[in-house]
Amino acid sequence: MQPISQVEGSFVDVEGRYVIVVGRFNHHVVDSLVEGAVDILVRHGVDGENIDIVHVPGAWELPLAVKRVLKVARPDAVIALGAVIRGGTPHFEYVAGGCNAALGNLQLEFETPIANGVLTVNSIEQAIERSGTKAGNKGAEAAMAAMEMVSLLRCFDGDDGGEA
Q1: Where residue 161 falls among pLDDT bands split at 50, 70, 90?
Q2: Is 122 domain-assigned?
Q3: What b/e string do you get for 97-136 counting C-beta neighbours within 10 Å, with b at 16 or more?
Q4: Does 86 or 80 have the greater pLDDT score?
Q5: Which domain holds residue 92?
Q6: Does some domain include residue 12?
Q7: Is 112 flagged in the annotation as binding?
């Protein structure tokens, strides 16, 4: 491969199969994240038939479902969505930390983009702000990241077998 001066993904070459894996816990927040993700994918030309949604109980279960999706469905990208809201116990740290670390490891293991749209917030107000109000929609942002990574990785297809 020739030396690379600059490579980046775009939002044009984003066709492919996307799977949104979503934790139902805190669904009043997460439903808006899913709507934002689907809307942005479709607006950028992804066919609705190439978008699948898998529901799991909560953020803790996301990594296992994502791993199975990667093995069986072999999508171009996965978008993980959920909401972990801090409470009065250390449970928040275990769930949020474990979920985030596992998703990062799976992305490297399968060499497939996993956009992390799992909110980790201190209050329900912060979760609502990040699911479509003052702070934007983090589901839509995760979908944008997934599409950009799909496009970016295609820049490396066809060289020496994908080995960079």
Answers
A1: very low
A2: yes
A3: eebbebbeebbeebebbbbbbbbbbeeeebbbbbbbeeee
A4: 80
A5: 27-154
A6: no
A7: no
The 10 Å Cβ neighbour count of residue 85 is 18
Q: Taking the complete model, does pTM exceed 0.70, yes or no?
A: yes
Separation CA 75–CA 55 (nearest Å): 16
**53 marked among binding-site residues:** no
Separation between Cα atoms, residue 155 and residue 106, nearest integer Å: 21
Domains of the chain: total? 1
- Which one of 27, 44, 55, 91 is the catalytic residue? 91
92 is in an annotated binding site: no
Q: Residue type at 32?
A: S
Q: What CATH number is attached to the domain comprising 127?
A: 3.40.50.960
Mark whether 27 is an active-site residue.
no
Please state, as a whole number, how many other Cβ atoms lie within 10 Å of the Cβ of residue 33: 32
